[in-house]
């Protein structure tokens, strides 16, 4: 008599509750409470029907609260997929581009500030050297400025480069 060994069940790796997901659940719950509280304490808008302008913020708050509870349950079970290790370098380049645009917008104008944002974001995504992407970003931004400012008559911050037009 030939007896085959019984295959072992694959061991399930026990995962601990996910702390980051609990933080997300808490933030969702806080946003839900703030929306509901703001709607409740805001000015009552008289309505001739049951469903008025206050119904939708309450619906959004309710959905966010349900999502918060669902996220907390999944976090407790530890069923979120493993996250990859974060690569902080690209994030720093992109945040630096946003900060640069905000700091430069009033002094240098839309084209130069947005060109810097374009170049640093491209660098964050691993594209092109800065000596090439900064002028390219400025040219693209200048074209956008001309279309919006001159063509559509919208007001965008103007700097020395835009004043030439």
TrEMBL record:
<feature type="transmembrane region" description="Helical">
    <location>
        <begin position="55"/>
        <end position="73"/>
    </location>
</feature>
<feature type="domain" description="DUF1468">
    <location>
        <begin position="23"/>
        <end position="157"/>
    </location>
</feature>
<feature type="transmembrane region" description="Helical">
    <location>
        <begin position="93"/>
        <end position="118"/>
    </location>
</feature>
<dbReference type="Pfam" id="PF07331">
    <property type="entry name" value="TctB"/>
</dbReference>
<keyword id="KW-1133">Transmembrane helix</keyword>
<feature type="transmembrane region" description="Helical">
    <location>
        <begin position="130"/>
        <end position="148"/>
    </location>
</feature>
<feature type="transmembrane region" description="Helical">
    <location>
        <begin position="20"/>
        <end position="43"/>
    </location>
</feature>
<protein>
    <submittedName>
        <fullName>C4-dicarboxylate ABC transporter</fullName>
    </submittedName>
</protein>
<keyword id="KW-0812">Transmembrane</keyword>
<dbReference type="InterPro" id="IPR009936">
    <property type="entry name" value="DUF1468"/>
</dbReference>
<keyword id="KW-0472">Membrane</keyword>
């Amino acid at each position: 008599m030939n007896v085959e060994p019984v295959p072992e069940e694959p061991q399930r790796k026990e995962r601990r509750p996910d702390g980051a997901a609990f933080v997300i659940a808490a933030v969702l719950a806080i946003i839900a409470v703030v929306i509901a509280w703001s709607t409740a304490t805001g000015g009552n808008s008289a309505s001739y029907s049951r469903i008025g302008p206050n119904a939708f913020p309450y619906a959004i708050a309710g959905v966010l609260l349900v999502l918060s509870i669902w996220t907390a349950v999944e976090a407790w079970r530890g069923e979120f997929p493993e996250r990859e290790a974060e690569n902080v370098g690209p994030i720093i380049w992109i945040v630096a581009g946003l900060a640069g645009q905000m700091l430069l917008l009033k002094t240098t104008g839309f084209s130069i500030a947005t060109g810097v944002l374009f170049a640093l974001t491209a660098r964050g995504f691993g594209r092109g050297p800065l000596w090439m992407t900064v002028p390219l970003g400025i040219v693209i931004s200048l074209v956008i400025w001309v279309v919006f400012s001159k063509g559509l008559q919208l007001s965008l911050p103007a700097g020395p480069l835009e004043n030439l037009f």
